[in-house]
Amino acid sequence: MIGIIGVGNMGTAIAGRLQKNGLEVIAKGRKMISISGVKEASGFDEMARCKAVLLCVKPADLSSVASGMKVAISSTGGHPLLISIAAGRSLQWLEGHLGNERIVRAMPNLAARAGKSFTCFSANSNASSEDLELAQEIFSTFGSCRQVSEGSLNAVTAISGSGLAYFLYFARALAKAGVSAGLEGGLADLLARSTLIGVSAIADEATPSTFDELIASIATPGGTTEAALGVFEQNGMEKTVSSAVHAAKERCEALAQK
């Protein structure tokens, strides 16, 4: 049995993929569970009896959830593998709130909803090789995964944890630009969405290509794409993206201090 605490966007996406892949799932949250086949837990004691529990709550809510799990673990004697996906909450912080448990800190993203998340994770010294295998089995139900040093996780959060929103922000801007260029709103939105899907497909092709090679395959010298890319360069788009990523990373680091 896999437990999930927190049934917001991420918790619901993960629960759905776990259930779809044949794993027995029990969930606990502030709202009713709306996923067919997922049992609703009555309290933390049920969670403590699970094989693994994913803590899918916001960083601000993690302290109270950790407290509830710590009490339940003590009272039931159950010791599930605890997996936190909260941004900025370090393994040291988690150990301080959960006790001497087997803990994994992970950063998936909302592409888990489509089974396309890339989850990076780190584990504390109490986690065994079997625990790491279980964590990878869980993460693989909603995408790909890789174990990394914990020092990388704040940067991972800034790139892939938050990164989906960056691409969607750009797609929204592209759709708005389409309208200003004379397209009907529905068509502009459709073109922006389909372009987002298309770039994902070519970036995922079997033949390895660098981003520079992919861009060059689209941007004909002296053509329309090159003209647009020139505007991005003139307006410092790379610098803007870098500043945004560093702002997200710094926010992660700030969360770790709370």
State the main characteristics.
258 residues, alpha/beta, Rossmann fold, ProC C-terminal domain-like fold, 2 domains, 8-stranded mixed β-sheet, 11 helices, 8 strands
Describe the structure.
- This protein is of the alpha/beta class and 258 residues long.
- It folds into 2 domains: 2-149, Rossmann fold, CATH 3.40.50.720; 163-256, ProC C-terminal domain-like (ProC C-terminal domain-like fold, Orthogonal Bundle).
- The chain has 11 helices and 8 strands.
- It has an 8-stranded mixed β-sheet, with helices on both faces.
- Helix 6 (153-161) packs across helix 11 (237-256) and helix 7 crosses helix 8.
- The longest helix has 20 residues, at 237-256.
- The radius of gyration is 21 Å and the shape is elongated.
- Roughly how many Å is the radius of gyration? 21 Å
- Write the CATH homologous superfamily of the largest domain: NAD(P)-binding Rossmann-like Domain
Continuous helix count? 11
Give the distance, in angstroms, between the N- and C-terminal Cα atoms. Answer: 32 Å
Order of helices and strands: EHEEHEHEHEEHEHHHHHH
Overall geometric form? elongated
The CATH first-level class of the largest domain comes to Alpha Beta
The share of residues in helices is 40-55%
Low-confidence stretches: none
CATH topology of the largest domain: Rossmann fold
CATH architecture of the largest domain: 3-Layer(aba) Sandwich
Structural class, from secondary structure content? alpha/beta
Major β-sheet profile? 8 strands, mixed
- Please indicate the percent range of residues in DSSP E strands (runs of 2 or more): 5-15%
Average residue pLDDT: 94
User: Total domains, how many?
Assistant: 2
